Amino acid sequence: MTSLTLDWFRSLKNLPSLPEQIDNVLMATGTSSSMDYSIVEMIQYDPAMAVAVLRVANTPMYGYPGQISSLQQAAGLLGPGAIKNIILRTPIIERFSNNSSQVFPIDHLQLWLHSGVTAAISGGLGRFIGGMESDVSFTSGLIHNIGIIALTVYFPERYAKVLDVMDKNQTDLIEAERQTLGFSHPEVAGEMMEAWGFPSQLSQAILQYTEPAKSKMNWEIAAVVALAKSLACEWGFPSGLKGLKTPERESLQALLGLSAKELKSWEPQLRKYAEFSLDTMKIA
After folding, report:
1. pLDDT of 100
2. Residue 64, CB half-sphere, CA atoms under 13 Å: how many?
3. Angle at 126 between CA 25 and CA 46, to 5 degrees
4. pLDDT grade, residue 31 (50/70/90)?
5. I need a surface site. Which of 23, 83, 112, 219 has the fewest CB within 10 A?
6. What is the pLDDT of residues 152-178, one digit of tens each?
């Protein structure tokens, strides 16, 4: 049995994506006579493809190591040809099952939809609030669950035990993870991002999205992701991570200095962003 430690996740080169996502991209690239940026539009709501593109963009080869914090920045730097090659090397989640009867502890399709909607809302909130890089807010919302993806894909049986401990002990998910594994899924994400050379702006936001605080670096982005996550769940797109406690919407609004009236006035446009993400993903 593989020893499950935080160090293990530093060796990962990429994360797998949904077979539906891979098929959509392959179909689009196979029928296109010329490569254009439409492929970027197709991957902008896929967390696995996004981190693969970000990892390459943050290598010294492209001249900006550890400085590329958004998928949009990475796409502009790499170009569609390089992005296509990265996507074609993205593994498929189904290939990681030891047998056809294996059941993952969470619904990855649900998690992908939640990630895409959270990204769309995060980007919108970043634009409305002002003084923030909305592309970075978007990207943070998109990849905030990469620790969960890694754990549930590569160690499904052990993660199932986490959920069992959570149910039996009536504890929250983060505490159950620490009791069972010795670390939490945000810490897994942080380990991978450090190994991949991601900017601290991203890693710090994702490490604290379940508990943003002004005493921490990049707390604004973390709070935006947490608020977007709350709205995504409220609007019918939960992550499927039962027992994951995050701050109440009211406390997040207070942290960000937002009134209920402001958020209500933004809601129609935020919902449009969410709907656009669903139309683009084409996996629902």
Report:
1. 42
2. 16
3. 15
4. low
5. 23
6. 999 999 999 999 999 999 999 999 999
The whole-number average pLDDT for the span 215-219 is 94
pLDDT attached to residue 140: 97
- Where is average pLDDT lowest: 24-33, 105-114, 118-127, 191-200? 24-33
pLDDT one-digit tens code per residue, 71-98 = 999 988 998 888 888 888 889 887 444 4
CA distance 107 to 104: 7
Report how far apart, in Å, the C-alpha atoms of 174 and of each of 10, 23, 63, 98, 118 are. Answer: 20, 34, 37, 27, 20
What pTM was computed for the model?
Answer: 0.93
DSSP string, the chain: -----GGGGGG-----B-HHHHHHHHHHHHH-SS--THHHHHHTT-HHHHHHHHHHHTSGGGT-TTT--SHHHHHHHH-HHHHHHHHHT--BGGGG-SSTT---SS-HHHHHHHHHHHHHHHHHHHHHH-SS-HHHHHHHHHHTTHHHHHHHHH-HHHHHHHHHHHHHHT--HHHHHHHHTSS-HHHHHHHHHHHTT--HHHHHHHHTTTS--TTSTTHHHHHHHHHHHHHHHHTT---S-TT-----HHHHHHHHT--HHHHHHHHHHHHHHHHHHHHHH---
